[in-house]
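Appendix B, example 12.
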Amino acid sequence: MILGIIPARYASTRYPGKPLIDIEGKTMIQRVYEQASKSKSLNKVVVATDDARIYEHVESFGGIAVMTKENHPSGTDRCWEALQNLNEDFQYVINIQGDEPFIDPSQIDSLAAVLQDGKTELATLIIPVNDHALLFDMGEVKVVLNTQMEALYFSRMVIPYIKGIAQENWHEHHAYYRHVGMYAYRKDILAQVTQLSVSSLEQAESLEQLRWLEHGFKIKCALTDFESHCIDTPEDVEKVLRLMQKHS
């Protein structure tokens, strides 16, 4: 049993009220919810929010919402509280980003596919990088893998360094991957990682998944071919619409 949770805060630092913005006739949170509901792998989809306006809106379009505390430091912590509040028997939780209104359901299914053995502790998505500018964009998180498709490390820097090759050609000499921000947690592991203290690597890179690696947990990675298009600022709305129209 897999539960899909969409964390949705109202008080976004860069874009307050972001889940309720209108995108061609529907709010962003409704679009995310409807896309996630198309996944063939999820047994249930809920929105975990800290705001009555979001809660009531989700209920108004027929979705399921769960109220959570305001002071969660991350979406992972909000997912754990939502799971506890539901008090239902799910083996895994998939944390679905609430700011990607055109998420492809197959991305969720790709992530869910690696959970079938029941042994996977944590999982996330990655996508190949075949462009120099994207590879050296410090806003994009890169990941290196072991032979079992488990993450060895995540970084905003380019890893690995390739000795003797010009940087603009690195992507032609190594299989680079960047992180796509969707996580899956086994229920018992989710309970454990939410009790961990912030780690030094996490503080250095501002990446919570490094806390899990630093404490010895394994993160399985699944490949996706679909680009992620997040909305973090008002300007991103038009940018994402243009990209989607181009893709169509």
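The mean pLDDT is 92. The CA atoms of residues 41 and 113 lie 8 Å apart.
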